[in-house]
């Protein structure tokens, strides 16, 4: 059985099309939680982002997942965590959920399908997780616009090749880019993904680059700052 252990929780990922990775973990760790009482996790997969936000004190996290096997696995991970009373997973299309949602969210977070067209995988679950066929960017942004509180924030992780088109589309869906963090493995590498933060209001754009490793498999100070309360390798340091 494939299980990834963190300091305070574990993630079973036997059914997961997309496994726990450093990019996604950093993405969840960077999301600010101040003022966020209600959080929505779109396409939760294993439930990783929801679990991380619950650990950081969010009072209520709703995770929505289209794939039934992934939703069942996320539910297992939630029940096995110390915050089961604050986490719930719903197996649904986010567009259908949005039509019946009774309250808006302070923070919406999403690590969506990364790949399109030319790189389709033969495995159906992996294809669903890797392609935006099931949830085109315009549908995602419009849906988020309808679910976000007036002062709410939308956090989105994207591959670099998809960033510009989504950023250009966002204003027509009521969202404006306020922060962009390009994430690269080493200082010598080009960034492969970007963590984006959108808000309803226009304002100054904060841009930065985060380097994961300072040398071979040794985390940079920035990475350690975000991951020190999560990864087991930092557990003894925190004691």
TrEMBL record:
<dbReference type="InterPro" id="IPR002052">
    <property type="entry name" value="DNA_methylase_N6_adenine_CS"/>
</dbReference>
<keyword id="KW-0819">tRNA processing</keyword>
<dbReference type="GO" id="GO:0008033">
    <property type="term" value="P:tRNA processing"/>
</dbReference>
<dbReference type="InterPro" id="IPR050210">
    <property type="entry name" value="tRNA_Adenine-N(6)_MTase"/>
</dbReference>
<dbReference type="InterPro" id="IPR020596">
    <property type="entry name" value="rRNA_Ade_Mease_Trfase_CS"/>
</dbReference>
<comment type="function">
    <text>Specifically methylates the adenine in position 37 of tRNA(1)(Val) (anticodon cmo5UAC).</text>
</comment>
<dbReference type="GO" id="GO:0003676">
    <property type="term" value="F:nucleic acid binding"/>
</dbReference>
<dbReference type="GO" id="GO:0000179">
    <property type="term" value="F:rRNA (adenine-N6,N6-)-dimethyltransferase activity"/>
</dbReference>
<keyword id="KW-0949">S-adenosyl-L-methionine</keyword>
<keyword id="KW-0963">Cytoplasm</keyword>
<dbReference type="GO" id="GO:0005737">
    <property type="term" value="C:cytoplasm"/>
</dbReference>
<protein>
    <recommendedName>
        <fullName>tRNA1(Val) (adenine(37)-N6)-methyltransferase</fullName>
        <ecNumber>2.1.1.223</ecNumber>
    </recommendedName>
</protein>
<keyword id="KW-0489">Methyltransferase</keyword>
<dbReference type="InterPro" id="IPR022882">
    <property type="entry name" value="tRNA_adenine-N6_MeTrfase"/>
</dbReference>
<comment type="similarity">
    <text>Belongs to the methyltransferase superfamily. tRNA (adenine-N(6)-)-methyltransferase family.</text>
</comment>
<dbReference type="GO" id="GO:0016430">
    <property type="term" value="F:tRNA (adenine-N6)-methyltransferase activity"/>
</dbReference>
<keyword id="KW-0808">Transferase</keyword>
<feature type="domain" description="Methyltransferase small">
    <location>
        <begin position="36"/>
        <end position="130"/>
    </location>
</feature>
<dbReference type="InterPro" id="IPR007848">
    <property type="entry name" value="Small_mtfrase_dom"/>
</dbReference>
<dbReference type="InterPro" id="IPR029063">
    <property type="entry name" value="SAM-dependent_MTases_sf"/>
</dbReference>
<dbReference type="Pfam" id="PF05175">
    <property type="entry name" value="MTS"/>
</dbReference>
């Amino acid at each position: 059985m494939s299980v990834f252990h963190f300091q305070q929780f574990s993630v079973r990922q036997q059914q997961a099309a997309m496994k726990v990775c450093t990019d996604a973990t950093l993405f969840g760790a960077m999301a600010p939680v101040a003022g966020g009482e209600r959080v929505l996790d779109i396409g939760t997969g294993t439930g990783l982002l929801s679990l991380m936000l619950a650990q950081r004190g969010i009072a209520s996290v709703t995770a929505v997942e289209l794939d039934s096997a992934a939703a069942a696995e996320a539910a297992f991970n939630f029940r096995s965590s110390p915050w089961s009373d604050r986490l719930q997973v719903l197996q649904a299309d986010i567009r259908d959920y949005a039509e019946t949602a009774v309250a808006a969210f302070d923070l919406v977070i999403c690590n969506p399908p990364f790949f399109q067209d030319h790189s389709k995988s033969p495995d159906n679950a992996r294809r669903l997780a890797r392609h935006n066929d099931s949830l085109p960017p315009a549908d995602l942004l419009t849906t988020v616009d309808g679910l976000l509180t007036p002062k709410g924030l939308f956090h989105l992780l994207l591959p670099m090749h998809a960033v510009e088109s989504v950023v250009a589309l966002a204003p027509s869906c009521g969202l404006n880019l306020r922060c962009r963090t390009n994430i690269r493995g080493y200082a010598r590498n080009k960034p492969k993904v970007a963590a984006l933060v959108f808000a309803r209001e226009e304002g100054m754009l904060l841009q930065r680059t985060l380097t994961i490793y300072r040398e071979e498999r040794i985390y940079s100070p920035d990475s350690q700052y975000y991951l020190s309360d999560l990864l087991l390798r930092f557990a003894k340091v925190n004691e």
